[in-house]
Amino acid sequence: MLIQTHSQQLIATAENWWVDCALAALDWRGRFDVALSGGRTPRRLYQRLARNRLLRGHWGQIGLWFGDERAVPPAHADSNYRMVLEAGLNPELGVQLERIPGELEPTLAAERYAKQLGSLPQRGGWPLFDLVMLGMGADGHIASLFPGSANLAEGDKPVSACPVAALDSWRISLTLPVIANARRILVLVAGADKAEMLQRVLHKGDPAYPASQIARLDQADWLVALDDKGPNA
Ligand code: 6PG
Question: For a 10 Å CB count at each end of the chain, is N or C smaller?
Fold first, then answer.
């Protein structure tokens, strides 16, 4: 489902959506395991979730995982884990926080995180998240699955490590089978610079872009704000 809103309402709308999803999972199975997305857009959402009063008392049954990570140590400025901690989603809440060990050699980090995912429920041989959160880049990437990258084809393992030439860095990412296995998916997209790509993936389903793989999934909700001032303005 596509939900379009103004950038000033995006984060509040995302917060309500996320809390509803979490409380439904907690009610149904007593746990909520979510893979968080990185980048700039979700930062303010995480700050609000950390203070959300409806989640108080539930953090002990919530597992915060990561959809992808940069191949950097946890204290590095580019670390998604550091961004989440600084937003207030931290162990002081009593929440389980499962980071991708970005400080390790990337393929070892991917193997290590794949082992950690073994503690989740499994479905069809893949880890089963209640929710996978994604952002989308203007180039149509999701998580750290970039157009043309080798890890797109890695359909035999849950986590992959891949060099990203455009960023001159390595990334570690959940693979498409794990993302597609999630009960729910929330794709949070902010900024006018993404409007053209959003059109391509949602309405044309251009297979050249990883985001198109998500567009065809029934369990994916797209929450978008395309006016110029993104939620980080
Ligand atoms: C990351 C993310 C990445 C991000 C998109 C959108 O580690 O950077 O997982 O996929 O979601 O690049 O990023 P923005 O929210 O900064 O536009």
Answer: N
What is the predicted pLDDT for the residue at 233? Answer: 46
pTM: 0.96
Q: Within a domain: residue 129? A: yes
Nearest CA to ligand 1 atom 11: 135
Distance CA 73, CA 175 (A): 21
Distance from C-alpha of 113 to C-alpha of 106, rounded to nearest angstrom: 10
Q: 15 is in which domain, residue-wise? A: 11-186
Question: Which residues' Cβ are closer than 6 Å to ligand 1?
Answer: 37-41, 67-68, 80, 135-137, 141-143
Q: How far apart, in whole angstroms, are the C-alpha atoms of residue 49 and residue 16?
A: 9
Please indicate, yes or no, if residue 192 is contained in any of the structural domains.
no
Residue to mutate (ligand 1; options 81, 132, 133, 141; most atoms within 8 A of CB): 141
Tell me, in angstroms, the distance from the centre of ligand 1 to residue 41's CA: 7
Q: What pLDDT band is residue 177 in, cutting at 50, 70 and 90?
A: very high
